Structure formats: structure tokens, C-alpha cells
Amino acid sequence: MAFCKISFDLFCDKGENPRYRIYVNNELFTERTYIWKGVKYVRENLQVNAPPGEYTIKIEKIDPGKFRVRNTKIDYGPAQLVDSTTFRITQ
To answer: Structure pTM?
Structure first.
């Protein structure tokens, strides 16, 4: 098992306070309501304690809206980014 911190910017362009869920693979990490108006990205932070392997971050819309992810980073731990929504724990 390895502990990693992953962060990314999340933006929603539609809807009145749309709700969303963040999953890592099939595990629910959080459910939130996007309350910001205009062009504003929110910095999301995930703390993952998992065995080595590849993991995918999934944004599930509960209410209408289009979500975008950017600036994904590994802030701590033995992990590497594969792409903006996938990371690999190496140890």
C-alpha cells in the first residue's frame, strides 16, 4: 500500500448548482455541489491509500452540466500521471 495525494482543477459550465461525484476506479471519494458562477476552476484534492496499479478518476454528473478537468498533479507519494484522469501508483 502507498499513500498519494492527487489534485486537479475542476470546472462546470452549466446548471444551477449542479451536483457531482468523484470516483477513483469504482470507489466513491466525494459528492459535492458546484456553487461557483462564471469561469472559475475549483481545486479538488484526493488522498489515496492503495496498492500499486493504475487508477482512473471519474467525474459523475448528478445534475446537468459539463465538467472539465485540467492541471492534474501528483502532490505527494510514489505515483505518476498517465493522463489528466489516470495515475499509476508505482510502489
So the answer is: 0.88
